[in-house]
Each structure stands twice: as structure tokens, then as C-alpha cells.
Specification:
The protein has 861 residues and is of the alpha+beta class. It has a six-stranded antiparallel sheet. The chain has a five-stranded antiparallel sheet with strand order 6-5-9-8-7, sandwiched between helices. Helix 7 (209-229) packs parallel to helix 11, helix 8 packs antiparallel against helix 11 (360-392) and helix 19 (613-672) packs antiparallel against helix 20. The N and C termini lie far apart (163 Å). The structure holds adenosine-5'-diphosphate (ADP). Residues 766-767, 770, 796, 798-801, 809, 815-817, 824-830, 853 line the site of adenosine-5'-diphosphate.
Length: 861
């Protein structure tokens, strides 16, 4: 107090005491009469400087102590303490008022005793009344959203252990007394003792649901529009959406179900499983999983059109888990209908590993984004359909700009021309055009791009990368935007046009025209060629009646009847008739007609008309030639038969008198031989000889007439055997003349046996007969294979033939010798020639007089 002892001793102690405290203090001291020990309340004491100090005194009554006989007072200056207490009171008051005013739920956690002391806001915001029971850490944990608690657990432990950390700040969901979760932010301060052990924690929980909701929704929207505006397929878009939602709400599995086109089923379109590769839990292809309206989770949400939650105890979820996933940890599911234009287009199902909890944030969020997802799915689907349409169209689809560029082309276009999309869009399209089409196209394009009219099957040629040209028929749309773009649809008509050209050429060459009669309007159409055939000029308009009148008078009733018949029952016709052209020329035409019937009524007659005049003329000429030929053939047949008959008669009837001559001559000789003189005998001999030769002639003639009447078929004929047989037949002559017959390798040929024997018989017998008297006949037979024929030769060393007679000897009855020199009838070679020619071959001779002859003949293979 700053006093020296002298300044105090002898003074009344109460003089130093604050007047306000005096009364209370003296009353306290009065109690000393009865009590031995007493502790005063704090009171003010003036120090030497005149300032009031707070003092607290302990008085011990030692009056009865002989040694002391007084009261001992020990005083402590507690000014600092009192001042602190005062300040504390102020701040306590402030805290109290703050607590009443704020919505931050302030807490103080006595860690040693695990007790929370909550500010008023705790009850106000979260609805808990904690008057009776103590609030402990376990209570806190039970109120945290399980998945958030799990998420924060490690962080908390780290913070708790770390001596150097005091500040704690986290956001999580915290359950309100009505069971709903709020988003809160916790800001806390940890008080640790000198060794860093936490002893107290002071902090607050602030409800940030509103702003959190806004940020979440904002964030979702931003992310979604990011996902949806990317140029990816619907499937990968949905994959990303599911992934995002699942991660945002900590869902283990997310499924997206779409209502089928016919609105009869709902099928699994996509799914997402946190931390797993898709497909691992799904034993079926997503789109193979389908349910009906009202069936299973997606079907129920579809029907209810409301966000729906299930818990493990619901049989539905058990069922779903069995069919869709094998994840046993799933405990709850939430289903959100995706509604677009008032229709449920799909359902989002989210599975959680936690039991179902009611979180209004989630509900609001999911409900608010559902229409967004719905709309985006529809848009994406449409976009995808459009893209598919564009890309898979077999026809050309393109977007053309007013400055003459293609700004977009589909794959069909690239494929047709062989240029990439880039190449087609980087230069004006006239670069690809055929030079002859530039002007036309330019005009057409100006008309369409100004919106004046639309192109309708405008055809031009585009150059392909390989340099060839393709004909494309174009149709354009209306102008589609302010920039004046148009859609240009093209079709490759190259084949059609080339075919058309071919047809044109063919009709030109075949002189075929077309015609058509529209039964209703009676209009008649003649193609260019039809007009040409009729020799019509271009201005002539045909009609049915004049059409009929072009036919020659005698043909008109025929064509009229056919026309009428076809109109009645559709009977087609194909006729060859003459017409008289406009210029008065007669021409033959082939006219084909058909009827087009609709419901039993003829609506159109059409057909072709071909100029067949030349053919008809040739046919007619041929016809008359044929007739002449037929006449000759008939005459020939008659004369042949007559000849045959003659030969027959000759052989039989003429032989009879001959035999008579011979036998009477024999009779004459035997009966009257001795009466006749030598001269008479000679006459008889002449007569007999004559008759004999006559008989031979008759036999030879008969043989000749029979040539060519083979009754046998072709067969393989071994020529060696033929020659051997002939030698056998000629044995007598061969022996007589000592003839030598030689032959080399003779072939086996496919031919008729009998005629070949005849040929060789004649040739060999001639070769023996016409030998030189002083020389042995030597005959060589050989064969040569030529390209198309076999050539046989019979060579002798006989008397030979003068080359003047090379032809003559083959003529009937032509002989070069007298009968007494060399006997014969002059028919043999004629027969041979006839046989050879009948077989399709040829015969000729080579010979040198006195040296010998070679007879050659051929037989076709
Ligand atoms: P012919 O019955 O007279 O033999 P051919 O028609 O067989 O009748 O012969 C016609 C004529 O050709 C013969 O009369 C003969 O003068 C002549 N001739 C045929 N073959 C030979 C031959 N190998 N050598 C010489 N002359 C021949």
C-alpha cells in the first residue's frame, strides 16, 4: 500500500477503508466476537497514493491468547483479480446477449469431463433441449451425417493429437432434432495445457445451408452444362453426370434409367460405381435390364413421379441389389424422376452405403437438377439422333453458305468424292464442279441462296479425288438462318444417268421408242424415237385416234381391239404391224402394250414401239427364198426317188432279159454248137460278154444310186483293218498280178465303216487293174493327219493318167481305155467321189504317165 509502518501504527484501520465498504466490513468483523477465524469479502483500501485497492483479509481472533490478546489480520491485495472478474462479467454479459441474438451455436467442450456447454442458438437452430441430460462427444458424432463423419474422422484425430494446432474449421451435415440434416460450418479453438494435451475446446456451429445450397446448385449447373455441351455421346455424357452426382452426394452407385420409346418399359442406360470399374457389379449389359411401369425402384419412381427413398428394410431395394449390383454394403437408395415437358423420361437411382437419412439439401438439390438432366437428356438424344441421321445418311447432306462454300458435309459426301470433310469445306464448291456445269450451277445457286426458289433435282457433276466425275441431283431447303445458309441434299445419280445414256444409245440403235396413254385425260405421249419412227415433226401432238390411224388400214382393227381389251382387263399385247408414217412410208413396227390397273380400272396404257422394218423385209425376202428352196427340194426329192426307182427297176427288170440273153446264148452254144461255124461262136461270145458287161454296169449303177444312204452311225474305224479286209476281197486279183500292197501306220478314225471300205475297194482295185503289163503292181497306202482332216493316199506304179484327164476320170461313164484293154464301166471313181463328198471330204489325183498315180482323199475329223 506504500505506507511506512509509522504512518499506519496508531491509526484507525477503518479510516483507510472505502466508505461504501465500511458498513459491510465492520459487520463482518463483528462476527469475530464469536468466531475464531474469518475471511472477509473483498473491500477497498486506500493506498499511500490515495488510490483504492481491493483487499481481502483473513482475521484470526487471538484476544484470548495472552501473548497476543488481539486480532491478527492478513490481507491480500486482490485488485488485479477483482478487475479481471469485472471484465469477465462484462464479457460474460456480452456473451449472453450475443448468444441470445446469434444463430451461431456456441459451445464449450470440457474435454477432461467430456461435457459440452451449448449456447442458446443450439436449441434455436437445431431444436435440441439440453437442460436435463449432458451432451457428450458421442452425441455430437451421432448428429453428424455419417458419411461426413467418416470423411472428417482422420482429420479430426490428426488435429486432436497435434500440439501445435489449435484452429479447427470444417463443413459437414449436422442433424436437426426433426431428423433433417443441415449444412453447418464449425469453427473451433482448442485449448491445450502446457504439455499440449487438449483440455477445452470452444467453438461454434453455423448453419450455412442456404448459401451451401446455392453454391452446390451453382456448381452442379456449371458442371452439368460443361458436361452437356461437350461433343460426346449420350452414354459418356450420362456417365459423367452420374459420376459427378455420385461423388457429390457420396453415393456408392448411381444408375440412370430411361423410359423406352414406346413408354412401356424403363431400361438401365448407364451406371456408375464409385471406386470400381463399371460393369464389375453388373452381370448384365445395362440396356438388357428393364422393368415395367410401377415395377422395381425405377418403375416405382416413374409411377410416383416423386423423389422416393428406400431403406434396407424395404424389400424393393433388396430385390434391386440382387438384380443390379452385388454390392452388399448398400443400405439405402434414393430415386429421382427426370421429368421433361411433364413426362417422366427417366429415373435416377442413387445407392448409398448409409441408412436412409432425410436431407432436405439433397432433396432440394436433386429435385432442382432433375428437370435439367431430363431436358439435357432429351436434347442430347435429339442431337444424337440428328447426328446419326446426318452421319449415316446414304445421301449427301450438306450445309451451304451464301459465299459458295460447304460449311458442313456428311460422311456420305466425303465417301462419294473421296475428299475429306476438311477438303470439301475449305474451298468454294465450284472448284469441284465440271467446267461445263459451272454456269448453270452458278445461276441455280444464286436463285436458291437468295431464297427465290428451292432447287429441285438440279443435276451437275462433281469431280472426285481420282479425277472422275459423279452426277449429283440436288434439292435444297429454305434459308435456315439470317446468314442465309441452306441445306443441300444430294443424291448420286451417276449410275442412273449412265444407264439413261446407255438406254438412249440402245433405243437409238434398236430404234425403240416409248408411248403412253393417260386413260383419264386421253393424253398421249410419244418419245423422241417414237416420233422419229412415225416421221413426225416436233410440234405434232398425238392423240389416241390419230395414233390408231397411223396403222395400215388392215392393221387398224387389230390394234383397236387390243387397246380396248387392255382397257377392260389389262391384257398385254406384243404385235408386229405395219404403219404408214406421216410422210406416207410404210414401215413395220413391233408394238408392245401394257395396262396399269388400279382397283380393277385401267388408268394408263403404256409400252414400246420398235422399228423392225429392215428385219421384216429381210424376213420376207428369206421367206420367198425359202419357198423357192422348198420347191426345189421337193422336186429333187421327187427326182431322187424316181432315180432310185429307176435303178431298182433297172437292176431287176433289166437283169432279167440279160439273164435270158446269156442263158439262150448258152443254150444256143450247147444245142447247136456243133452246127455253128467259128464266126457264129465268136458272135455268141460277144453277145454273152456284152450281156455280162451290161449286168456289171447295172450293178454299178445300183451301187451308185445307193451312195449316201448310210443306215449306220459313226464309229471308231481302224483303217488298217479296212485295208486288210479290202485286200482279202481282192485276193484273187492280187494273186493273179502278184501285187504288193503296203501300208504304214494307219489311224483309227471316227467315221462310217461301209463307205470307207467302198472307197478303198475301188481305189485298190483300180491300182491293180491299171498296172503296167510288164511290172508287178506295187501299191502304197498312207495317211496324214492335218488340222481338220485326215488325208489318205493310194499310190501305185501303174500306167498313170494324162493330166488332161485328172478331172474327167471322176465323171460317170468316163473311161480312158477300151474295154478289151482294161475292163470297166467308168462308174467306180464317180462312186468314190460321191462317197468322199458325202462324208464332207475331197478327192483328187496326181499322176505321171508311165510312172504311176496317187489318189488322195480327205475325211473330216
Ligand atoms: P473303170 O470301170 O473304167 O475302171 P473308173 O471310174 O474306176 O472306171 O475309172 C475311170 C478311168 O480312170 C479308168 O477307165 C482309167 O482309165 C482311169 N484310171 C482309174 N484308176 C487308174 C489308175 N490307178 N491308173 C491309171 N488310170 C486309172
Amino acid at each position: 500500500m506504500g505506507y511506512l509502518p509509522d504512518e499506519l501504527i496508531g491509526n484507525n484501520g477503518f479510516d483507510f477503508i472505502h466508505p461504501d465498504d465500511l458498513e459491510h466490513l465492520s459487520s463482518q468483523f463483528k462476527r469475530l466476537k464469536n468466531e475464531f477465524h474469518l475471511k472477509s469479502d473483498p473491500y477497498r483500501f486506500k493506498n499511500r497514493d490515495g488510490d483504492w485497492r481491493w483487499i481481502q483479509s483473513t482475521a484470526t481472533n487471538l484476544i484470548k491468547d495472552d501473548l497476543i490478546s488481539g486480532v491478527i489480520i492478513n490481507s491480500v491485495d486482490i485488485t488485479e483479480l477483482i478487475q479481471t472478474q469485472e471484465q469477465l462479467q462484462i464479457s460474460n454479459d456480452r456473451y449472453k446477449y450475443l448468444n441470445k441474438a446469434t444463430n451461431d451455436a456456441v459451445y464449450e467442450w470440457d474435454i477432461i469431463h467430456d461435457r459440452f456447454d451449448w449456447g442458446d442458438a443450439f436449441q434455436r437452430v437445431f431444436g435440441y433441449n439440453l437442460n436435463d441430460q449432458p451432451f457428450r462427444l458421442v452425441d455430437w458424432i451421432s448428429l453428424m451425417h455419417p458419411s461426413d463423419e467418416k470423411k472428417n474422422r482422420d482429420d479430426w484425430h490428426r488435429f486432436f493429437q497435434n500440439k501445435d494446432e489449435n484452429k479447427w474449421q470444417k463443413q459437414f451435415r449436422f442433424k436437426r432434432s426433426d431428423g433433417k440434416y443441415l449444412f453447418v460450418e464449425e469453427i473451433g479453438y482448442m485449448v491445450r495445457n502446457s504439455s499440449g494435451k487438449p483440455i477445452r475446446m470452444i467453438g461454434l456451429l453455423r448453419d450455412i445451408s442456404e448459401s451451401k445450397l446455392n453454391t452446390i446448385q451453382q456448381d452442379i449447373k456449371e458442371n452439368f452444362s460443361d458436361i452437356f455441351t461437350k461433343e460426346i455421346s449420350l452414354t459418356s455424357t450420362l456417365d459423367q453426370v452420374l459420376k459427378y452426382i455420385s461423388e457429390f452426394g457420396d453415393y456408392k452407385t448411381g444408375e440412370l434409367w430411361l423410359v423406352s420409346e414406346k413408354k412401356q418399359e424403363i431400361y438401365l442406360k448407364n451406371f456408375f460405381i464409385q471406386g470400381e470399374t463399371p460393369g464389375q457389379f453388373y452381370n448384365v449389359e445395362p440396356e438388357g435390364t428393364r422393368f415395367k411401369y410401377g415395377e422395381a425402384l425405377p418403375g416405382i419412381v416413374w409411377q410416383r413421379r416423386k423423389l422416393t427413398q428406400w431403406d434396407e428394410k424395404d424389400s424393393n431395394i433388396a430385390f434391386m441389389k440382387a438384380t443390379a449390383t452385388h454390392n452388399d454394403n448398400l443400405k439405402s437408395a434414393i430415386g429421382i424422376p427426370l421429368i421433361h415437358n411433364g413426362m417422366v423420361i427417366g429415373v435416377l437411382i442413387l445407392y448409398s452405403a448409409e441408412f436412409a437419412v432425410e436431407s432436405w439439401i439433397e432433396s432440394i438439390t436433386l429435385n432442382s437438377i432433375a428437370p435439367f438432366i431430363g431436358a439435357e437428356i432429351v436434347r442430347k438424344q435429339q442431337e444424337e439422333e440428328m447426328r446419326l441421321l446426318f452421319e449415316s445418311s446414304p445421301d449427301i447432306l450438306s450445309l451451304a453458305s451464301p459465299d459458295g462454300y460447304f460449311t458442313k458435309v456428311n460422311p456420305a459426301f466425303s465417301e462419294l468424292l473421296g475428299y475429306s470433310e476438311e477438303e470439301l469445306t475449305s474451298v468454294p464448291f465450284h472448284e469441284f464442279l465440271h467446267p461445263d456445269d459451272l454456269k448453270r450451277t452458278d445461276k441455280e445457286y444464286r436463285d436458291t441462296i437468295t431464297g427465290e426458289r428451292k432447287a429441285n433435282n438440279f443435276i451437275n457433276r462433281y469431280r472426285t479425288k481420282s479425277g472422275s466425275y459423279k452426277w449429283i441431283a440436288w434439292v435444297t431447303s429454305d434459308l435456315i438462318n439470317e446468314d442465309g445458309h441452306v441445306f443441300a441434299f444430294g443424291r448420286d445419280v451417276t449410275e442412273v444417268i449412265e444407264l439413261q445414256k446407255l438406254v438412249d444409245n440402245a433405243t437409238q440403235l434398236a430404234r425403240v421408242g416409248a408411248w403412253e396413254v393417260d386413260v383419264k385425260t386421253k393424253k398421249v405421249y410419244f418419245s423422241q424415237m417414237t416420233r422419229e419412227i412415225h416421221e413426225l415433226d416436233d410440234n405434232y401432238t398425238p392423240d389416241v385416234e390419230s395414233g390408231i390411224n397411223f396403222y395400215r388400214k388392215d392393221a387398224r382393227p387389230i390394234i383397236r381391239e387390243r387397246l380396248e381389251q387392255a382397257m377392260v382387263d389389262g391384257t398385254p399385247w406384243d404385235l408386229e404391224l405395219p404403219i404408214i408414217t406421216a410422210k406416207g412410208n410404210e414401215r413395220w413396227i413391233r408394238v408392245i402394250g401394257k395396262a396399269e390397273m388400279i382397283q380393277g380400272k385401267c388408268v394408263k396404257l403404256f409400252g414400246s414401239l420398235q422399228d423392225i422394218h429392215e428385219r421384216k423385209k429381210i424376213e420376207q425376202d428369206l421367206q420367198s427364198v425359202n419357198e423357192i428352196l422348198q420347191k426345189y427340194t421337193r422336186e429333187l426329192e421327187i427326182s431322187n426317188t424316181e432315180l432310185e426307182q429307176f435303178a431298182y427297176v433297172a437292176s431287176h427288170d433289166l437283169q432279167e432279159p440279160l439273164r435270158m440273153i446269156t442263158s439262150f446264148m448258152d443254150l444256143l452254144k450247147s444245142r447247136y454248137g456243133d452246127q455253128l461255124d467259128e464266126k457264129a461262136h465268136e458272135y455268141i461270145l460277144f453277145a454273152t460278154d456284152g450281156a455280162k458287161r451290161m449286168r456289171q454296169i447295172i450293178l454299178d449303177l445300183l451301187q451308185f444310186s445307193k451312195v449316201g444312204k448310210s443306215e449306220h452311225d459313226k464309229e471308231p474305224v481302224n483303217m488298217i483293218e479296212v485295208v486288210k479286209l479290202v485286200c482279202q476281197l481282192q485276193q484273187k486279183q492280187i494273186k493273179e498280178k502278184g501285187a504288193l500292197i503296203m501300208y504304214d501306220n494307219l489311224p483309227v478314225i471316227d467315221t462310217y465303216r461301209a463307205p470307207l471300205i467302198q472307197i478303198f475297194q475301188n481305189l485298190i482295185s483300180n491300182a491293180i487293174k491299171y498296172s503296167k503289163p510288164d511290172q508287178r503292181p506295187s501299191i502304197r497306202i498312207h495317211a496324214k493327219e492335218l488340222k481338220q482332216v485326215w488325208q489318205f493316199s493310194v499310190e501305185d506304179n501303174g500306167i498313170g493318167i494324162d493330166d488332161n484327164y485328172f478331172e474327167k476320170i471322176f465323171v460317170i461313164f468316163q473311161r480312158l481305155h477300151q474295154k478289151d484293154e482294161y475292163s470297166g464301166t467308168g462308174i467306180g471313181l464317180t462312186v468314190v467321189k460321191k462317197i468322199v463328198e458325202n462324208l464332207g471330204g475331197r478327192i483328187w489325183v496326181e499322176s505321171v504317165l508311165e510312172k504311176g498315180s496317187v489318189f488322195h482323199f480327205t475325211i473330216p475329223k
